[in-house]
Amino acid sequence: ADVKIYLTATIDERSFRRAKEFAEQGKKVAVESVRDNLIQRDKLDSTRAVSPLSKAQDAIEVDTSNTTIEEQVEIILQSINKKLSKASDTKY
Q1: How far apart are alpha carbons 26 and 29 in whole angstroms?
Q2: How many whole angstroms separate alpha carbon 21 and alpha carbon 71?
Q3: Residues 6 or more apart in contact with residue 71 via CB below 8 angstroms
Q4: Domain 5-87 listed as CATH 3.40.50.300
Q5: 91 vs 86: CA distance, rounded Å
Q6: Per-residue confidence in pLDDT tens, the chain, 92 aa
Q7: What 3-state DSSP class applies to 50?
Q8: Rounded Cα–Cα distance for residues 24 and 19 (Å)
Q9: DSSP letters spanning 1-48
Q10: Least crowded by CB within 10 Å, which of 13, 17, 69, 84?
Q11: The dihedral formed by the CA atoms of 5, 58, 54 and 10, expressed in degrees to the nearest 10
């Protein structure tokens, strides 16, 4: 891919978001429980033998912890335009 994006957020933010999703589904789950589960899953995902989850060396990392979806999209679009403008004059 010409541009790779790697989205990340703090464990606390990810835990809050996931607990909120559960609440919206009518499921009451403690944020601490969600946090523990995410930590365990992250460890499994990043250490598995086949295709471990990791940021590509040339990927643009976008921390979504304190941004809205609209801000995230804007950051990503700016990053894409900046990276592609180095190779060409075409803007997306």
Answers
A1: 10
A2: 20
A3: none
A4: yes
A5: 11
A6: 889 999 999 999 999 999 999 999 999 999 999 999 999 999 999 999 999 999 999 999 999 999 999 999 999 999 999 988 887 765 55
A7: coil
A8: 9
A9: ----EEEE--HHHHHHHHHHHHHHTT----HHHHHHHHHHHHHHHHH-
A10: 69
A11: -50
> What is the CB-side half-sphere exposure of residue 91 using CA atoms within 13 A?
3
What is this structure's pTM? 0.80
The size of the chain, in residues, is 92
SS3 85: helix
| Cβ contacts of 40 within 8 Å, gap of 6 or more | none
As given in the structure block, the two tokens for residue 24 are: 């919206």
Instruction: State the pLDDT at residue 1.
Output: 80
